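Hello,

Following up on my earlier ticket. Below are the three sequence lines again, exactly as submitted.
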Amino acid sequence: MGRPPSNGGPAFRFTQAEVAEMEAILQEHNNAMPARDVLTALAEKFSESPDRKGKITVQMKQVWNWFQNKRYAIRAKSSKAPGKLSITPMPRDESTPVRNMPQPMATPMPPASDSVPTTGKGAPENSAMEFEAKSGRDGAWYDVANFLSHRHLETSDPEVLVRFAGFGPEEDEWVNVRRNVRPRSLPCESSECVAVLPGDLILCFQEGKEQALYFDAHVLDAQRRRHDVRGCRCRFLVRYDHDQSEEIVPLRKVCRRPETDYRLQQLHAMNEATPVDQQKTSMDLTPVHVIKVPSSAETVPKQQSVNTAIVPPVPQANVSLVPQTMNIDPKKVEATSDMKGGNTIVRPGGTVFPSNVITSGVPVVSSQNMDEGK
DNA sequence: ATCTAAATACTCAAACACGC
DNA sequence: GCGTGTTTGAGTATTTAGAT
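Thanks for your patience. The regenerated structure is below:
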């Protein structure tokens, strides 16, 4: 465990008792570095313990390293507390940089022009509409807690004064309604990875050196991987709109736009309508379940959003998902059987996946195309 | 030069999927 | 059930940059 010493010796690890003792000392010192003689004394004490005596000599440097790392870890953890420039502006839990789960919007929108978003059309029934707003300070998107006021500037679009969720009045901002307010993006659950397709606009959690925020990004590619008990492990190659940087991110960093809801609805409808057995066989014959649906209008320029083929939650290896412009021609759908493990299906566009791993709900095939550089 | 903070490098163990 | 390969998290070592 741990990086082995450069002299090739065995890996070193502090025992639980030693860790407990050092933690106590660290606490006594209020998270400050103990004096050198304290570290030396600890090292000597550990070296003299029955477990180590004659076998392993604990160096003062090792004790010092432990304190350094521990202090850093503690600070890093505490710095994740809410704060606009903190590492996780909208954490869902301690471990994942996921946005807040939907919560009913407490404050209704102010009465404003028709360009101001309002609850109603387009929103799923019995779910309160929520919004997110783009901060002018850092260009990142934040959940809107309240709309406090609104104003009309003759020279430009209407603006609203927003209170960002989790922040105080000092962070309130006037934002352009037309450009910088929109329905809230949705954190993706494991089974929803199938609704994230290349070309899509998403809200993506970007972790920088000093801050980690949600920015607009476009999906360049999707690598479908086997789901396990931890959930979706697919990877998405994205390009951030604000700095054009590219990154491979897991689903947990992705929030999809509500405009893609229809995909999930269609997939759910298909799953309900088709018995599992039939789904397996019919999916082998791809055309039965390949449907044409428009890609989200906001994500792809009009001329590109012709017909996006979306396949039900089907495993895909080496996924370059079907190009946005592809029209399905059943005649071009071929089947091959040269892949290890059974029959394979070639999707239009050359995507191949083995039929023996098809399940009814989740992608279950891993692929390599984006891991090669790892 | 030394100290410190922060980040990265590196390895191991556990958990898991898969094939046999 | 067993062996193997992969992935992930945890823990320690090392490096780098800035401050003093």
